[in-house]
Design a protein that fits this description.
Length: 385
């Protein structure tokens, strides 16, 4: 079956998206200290550029301040938390909860409406985008909640369960199983009201979706980068470079680790290869602050940084086995399973001693507003100086 693309963008729709996003800070102002998307941003850079309170000079005084429960339920694992609008958003036990980001006090919680697994897609303006999937029937809903009150702004049933979403430029793009064609497809929905903008079948992401200023890698009959708003092809990816690790915070560059094990920096607008990084052990885990890329390396285990333009190694910390990396306030944080969280200075790799580090974190720490939020097996924990 030929690719099918339906574009329904209108001036009115773009206006509605702008209304939903009202309240977002101006591009001319300082970056907000929020964590409003999985991986921090659609670029999945795992970096908070607005963090100025929790730095290498203050992180050493981190202490556990409070926890909120995070329980698994039948068919519904807890969602990764988000922080925005002075709220910590969590989803577990078939409900979405909003806690005061400073104190942990419960601000609102959705009622339990049957057994449903819930994911948190992003916070856009004053809306929390969520996805609710009924455990038995598989019926799937895209639901926008008011960040202040939890009130449902809209809830739209989707024809198929959507997986692996990315939200950018007022659009949510996700992958789903096209049952009629018996293959994967991708579909884009307007953030403002959940309506369909375009779809493409076949279509799939290679790994987690990454958006670089509205440009997303999608595999159809070939691997290509498309415009998130229209589905229009912008450029074809080069042979062997199919899975983006992430993108620069400004969305100007993609970073691909290709089948030869080499990382390449690509112009996000044209696909031109701007740099091929030196050959080294294939990187695992990815974060970037625009100046450096941060990775975990194998053989031997280490945490290391390379120049974001050239790939030249900047520093290396041997003997460190991390699973997830976060960068904020000039500090690189590395999760080490059952071991204490590690922290080093982003510019030099010098250790930042933590007097009371979190232990047993299972996902990347979220750093926002001078606080560090971590996920354990049973709770979201908050640490602050």
């Amino acid at each position: 079956m030929a690719d099918r693309v339906r574009a329904t963008l209108t001036t009115a729709a773009l206006g509605a998206a702008a209304v939903l996003a009202t309240g977002a800070p101006s591009a001319a102002g300082p970056p907000p200290t929020v964590w409003a998307h999985p991986g921090a941003h659609p670029t999945r850079d795992h970096y908070n550029p607005g963090e100025t309170a929790l730095t290498a000079d203050t992180a050493g005084a981190l202490r556990h301040r409070w926890s909120v429960p995070r329980a698994s339920a039948v068919c519904a694992n807890p969602a990764a938390p988000l922080v925005a609008a002075d709220r910590l958003f969590t989803a577990s036990g078939y409900r979405v909860s909003a806690h005061d980001a400073r104190t942990g006090a419960l601000r609102w919680r959705t009622p339990e409406a049957g057994k449903r697994r819930i994911s948190l897609a992003a916070v856009v303006g004053n809306a929390l985008l969520t996805q609710w999937t009924h455990c038995r029937s598989g019926r799937d809903y895209l639901t926008a909640l008011d960040v202040r009150t939890g009130r449902v702004r809209y809830s739209r049933e989707l024809p198929e369960v959507m997986h692996s979403t990315v939200v950018d430029k007022g659009v949510l793009l996700g992958e789903y199983w096209d049952a009629a064609a018996a293959r994967y497809a991708v579909g884009a929905r307007r953030v403002a009201d959940g309506s369909l903008l375009w779809s493409r079948s076949p279509g799939a992401f290679n790994g987690l979706p990454v958006s670089a200023a509205g440009r997303v890698q999608v595999s159809t009959t070939t691997s290509r980068v498309v415009d998130i708003a229209t589905g229009r092809k912008l450029w074809d990816t080069r042979a062997g470079c199919l899975v983006p690790d992430g993108a620069s915070p400004d969305g100007a560059f993609f970073y691909f680790t290709c089948t030869d094990g080499r990382t390449r920096r690509l112009d996000a607008g044209t696909g031109a290869v701007l740099a091929t990084f030196p050959d080294r052990d294939e990187p695992f885990a990815f974060a970037t602050d625009g100046a450096r890329l941060y990775h975990r390396g194998f053989g031997p285990d280490r945490l290391y940084a390379v120049d974001a333009d050239t790939g030249a190694e900047v520093w290396s910390v041997p003997g460190v086995d991390v699973t997830d990396i976060t960068v904020a306030g000039g500090v690189v944080y590395g999760v080490r399973d059952e071991d204490p969280l590690i922290a080093v200075r982003a510019a030099t790799g010098r250790p930042v001693p933590l007097a009371g580090p979190p232990v047993g974190l299972r996902e990347e720490p979220v750093v926002a507003g001078g606080r560090l939020y971590g996920v354990t097996g049973s709770a979201v924990v908050m640490y602050a100086p």
